[in-house]
Specification:
This protein has 219 residues and is α/β, with parallel strands linked by helices. It has 9 helices and 8 strands. Strands 2-6-1-7-8 form a 5-stranded parallel sheet, sandwiched between helices. Strands 3-4-5 form a 3-stranded antiparallel sheet. Helix 2 crosses helix 4 and helix 7 packs across helix 8. The relative contact order is 0.22. Bound molecules: 2'-deoxycytidine-5'-monophosphate (DC). The site of 2'-deoxycytidine-5'-monophosphate has 15 residues, from helix 2, helix 4 and helix 8. 2'-deoxycytidine-5'-monophosphate binds next to helix 2, helix 4 and helix 8.
């Protein structure tokens, strides 16, 4: 049985940044589960399916084969044999992932894959339902959050650094909508597991957050 650290929280809380650094420090494998939902989202988008067309999504899930591989220690996502890692991070894909992640068949498709990854190896896995559904027996559970304003500012700065312009108001609106969608869905909604440690990163540096979590993990 691997040593399992589960980090859940809303979009933009810094889960992936923190999880990656923690993985490096502790020698764990980092599993970004949002990338799996994004992989399926690309499958739906490529087929021209709309998120509202639940029937078509459920049908399309059947012929999607999503695989996670590690190349030079970096996670790669394969969809039906093709590496689609470079396409995962767009807003379009993120919105489609959030909209379709509420469909039970979509979640079921990815559940065993995630569980199996954590079975044999030491992992830090981030997502929305890791501590509540995927790894309910995780050794350490973290619910990482930050205010909407802080998360929007971080995203704004990330986009600005890439030379993309977007208004802060639009980003805030997007984040609020995404939170609402992720927290109110019936299947595996985003919520803090009872035994998760709450970490609010609004006024913490990245180093402080990593240290706070690392201190909760074994040796
Ligand atoms: O973490 P992310 O932004 O890459 O995730 C994209 C969407 O995938 C997110 O809005 C909700 C969904 N997701 C999920 O439902 N459960 C997870 N464990 C991870 C992501």
């Amino acid at each position: 049985m691997g040593y399992n650290v589960a980090i859940d929280g809303p979009a933009g809380a810094g889960k992936s940044t923190i999880a990656k650094l923690l993985a490096k420090e502790k020698g764990y494998i980092y599993v970004d589960t949002g990338a799996l939902y994004r992989g399926l989202a690309i499958h739906f988008l490529d087929k021209g399916i709309r998120a509202e067309d639940t029937k078509a999504v459920i049908e399309a899930v059947k012929d999607a084969d999503v695989k996670i591989k590690y190349e030079d220690g970096i996670q790669q996502i394969y969809l039906n044999g093709k590496n689609i890692t470079g396409r995962l991070r767009s807003e379009e894909v993120g919105n489609m992932a959030s909209a379709t992640a509420k469909i039970p068949e979509v979640r079921a498709k990815l559940l065993m894959l995630q569980k199996n990854l954590a079975k044999e190896q030491d992992v830090v896995m981030d997502g929305r339902d890791i501590g509540t559904c995927v790894l309910p027996d995780a050794d350490v559970k973290i619910f990482l959050t930050a205010s909407v304003r802080t998360r929007a500012m971080r995203r704004y700065e990330e986009l600005a650094a890439k030379g993309e312009s977007c208004s802060l108001e639009t980003i805030e609106k997007d984040i609020t909508e995404r939170d609402e969608q992720d927290m109110t869905r019936k299947t595996a909604p985003l919520k803090k597991a009872e035994d998760a440690h709450l970490v609010d990163s609004s006024d913490m540096t990245i180093e402080e957050v990593v240290k706070a979590i690392a201190d909760l993990c074994k040796g």
